[in-house]
Amino acid sequence: MAKAADIGSKRLISLAPDAWVQWVTQRPEVVAKEILGSEFQWISRETDVLVKAYSATQGDFLVLNELQLRYTADMPLRMRAYAALAQERYRLPTYPVLVNILPPPSTLTIVNSYEQEFLGLRAIQDYRVINLWEIDAEIVFGQPLPSLLPFVPILRGGGEASVVQRALQVLRADAQLNQLESLLAFFASFVLDTPLVQQIMRWDMAVLRESPWYQEILAEGEQRGLQQGLQQGLQQGARQHLIRILRGRFGEIPHEVEVRLEGESVEKLESLMDSAIAVNSLEEFVSIFSK
User: Fold this and answer.
1) How far is residue 11's CA from residue 213's CA, in Å, rounded to a whole number?
2) Is 50 helix (H, G, I), strand (E, B) or coil?
3) Burial of 44 (C-beta count, 10 Å sphere; 0-12/13-18/19+)
4) What is the pTM (predicted TM-score) of this model?
5) Peptide bond preceding 144: is omega within 30 degrees of 0, i.e. cis?
6) What is the largest CA-CA distance in the chain?
7) What is the DSSP string of 173-184?
8) What is the average per-residue pLDDT within 260-288?
9) For residue range 117-137, what is the model confidence (pLDDT) as tens digits?
10) How far apart are CA 265 and CA 193, in angstroms?
């Protein structure tokens, strides 16, 4: 059973903070000094990441990163608030960046500034906007940008099975990255058929639940019925994987055993995988399964 992992924004950016701040600021000389606390007195969100950066020309400054699953109309006001709170707390110039992961409804226009005028007074906050669906997937491999590897399927040109497999190979080659495979599978399910995603990578519900984006998708009731479809896909994939383990160890298995596995939860199927590897015979496995 895989261990749960933090696959939120802070975890992703911490994989290669220098590469990240250079990419979002578009300045190759910038380096990340440390990731700061972004919890303020009234606001604390998992998708905000505050990085203290340094540039020889600008000195110390803050890079405020907001990774948003889907842009909403209140984002300009939130970016204004986060930038002001960060600058007030750390007394440093702030460079706010909004990274939108999935496209918003066509009726919503993405803007890169907050502007308000009231009784002759103006409030203005500019921020950089990065829409992931407009980013070329090759940038992730070329720069490289390991923080964006889980998002490869939704990047421009990243929706092909061969490109997803390429990202998967990079993740599996690095122990620091391989726990991100479930998040890669999650976003791959937006562009590839579920059986194909199950075929080329592992599904780990326990790890995936740690992602704030997964929770947000479930909360908003994704239009494809993703909550139900994803759960069914996970169950089907776990069942098929368990059957492959049993066949690999003991040859063909009785049809009634396969049928009995159909209604089991993902958690139970994952537990049975451990048993299937440990037992010495199919009869022993069936005995454990029947308890």
Assistant:
1) 13
2) strand
3) exposed
4) 0.70
5) yes
6) 81
7) T-TTTGGGHHHH
8) 80
9) 999 999 999 999 999 999 999
10) 21
